[in-house]
Amino acid sequence: MRCAERMMRAVGIGAVFTPPPLRGRGYASAMIGALLDGERAAGTDVAYLFSDIHPTFYERLGFVALPSRTISLRADALPARRLAITAVEDADWSAIRRCFDALDNRRPISFKRTPLVWDWLRTASRISRTDGQRIALIVRQARTARAYVLGRRFPKLDAFALDEYGYTGEEGFDAVAPLIRSAAGDLRKVTGWLPPDVARPAIPRGAVKKRKNGITMIALLSGPARAAWRKTASAILADDADRCWSTDHI
């Protein structure tokens, strides 16, 4: 995890589950506590998770809930422009990564994307799954990605779920909204996690509300992490923008 100019070692908790007949005995709390103690001893700076239950459970274990919200807007509220939009191909992913990094480097806090994460995104974009028809579109200029969008179409819900977008330069910024409209196609609504603060100005504000699942939470395990949090906590907690893309929740 990058915090300002400092890189911190982070560990993610992917799932916590106790069979219903065995709940209420403290097993999950004991296991998470043991994990945090071990990571703290190993020099890990931050632990994180995306809570799908009430955050209070994790707050009792030392986690802090970060702003986690959804945005919803009408697809026809997005401007339409004639752009050279094409489906993302395998050869485009290095350009998409450069486009992502150009925007991501402006964020105060973000996860560092390893090659494994990019491989997962590339593979997922080619696989048809039950969680919607995946869409990956790009606006190119020469070999450079000016803008791209990743998401999923849900025709039965009449909605396009926006997972992530990126851009470089003013041309890319101006291309984001019409690119999302093109991805939505004939669907009426665009919805998704509220984009991080540096990316939000590229799309209309829409209707914003608190998210009930996938809530980003962090636990500060090291002295440097706690010091960095003290400097940035007030600004982070006062902001309504997410610190993550939904594609970080994998």
Concise structural overview:
This protein is of the alpha+beta class and 250 residues long. The chain contains six helices and 14 strands.
Q: What can you tell me about this protein's structure?
A:
- There is one protein chain.
- By secondary structure, this protein is of the alpha+beta class.
- It has two domains: 2-68 and 211-248, Gcn5-related N-acetyltransferase (GNAT) (Aminopeptidase); 70-208, Aminopeptidase (3-Layer(aba) Sandwich), CATH 3.40.630.30.
- It is built from six helices and 14 strands.
- It has helices at 27-41, 56-59, 93-104, 115-126, 169-184, 223-238, and strands spanning 2-3, 6-7, 10-13, 46-51, 64-65, 69-74, 85-87, 109-110, 133-141, 144-154, 159-167, 189-193, 207-210, 215-220.
- The model has no long low-confidence stretch (mean pLDDT 91).
- How many distinct domains? 2
- What is the assigned CATH homologous superfamily of the largest domain? Gcn5-related N-acetyltransferase (GNAT)
Radius of gyration: 19 Å
**Shape descriptor:** globular
Mean of all residue-level pLDDT scores: 91
Decide which structural class fits the backbone: alpha+beta
Largest sheet: 7 strands, mixed
How would you summarize the topology of this molecule?
Layout: E1 2-3, E2 6-7, E3 10-13, H1 27-41, E4 46-51, H2 56-59, E5 64-65, E6 69-74, E7 85-87, H3 93-104, E8 109-110, H4 115-126, E9 133-141, E10 144-154, E11 159-167, H5 169-184, E12 189-193, E13 207-210, E14 215-220, H6 223-238
Parallel strand pairs: 3-4, 11-12
Antiparallel strand pairs: 1-2, 1-8, 4-14, 5-14, 6-12, 6-13, 7-9, 9-10, 10-11
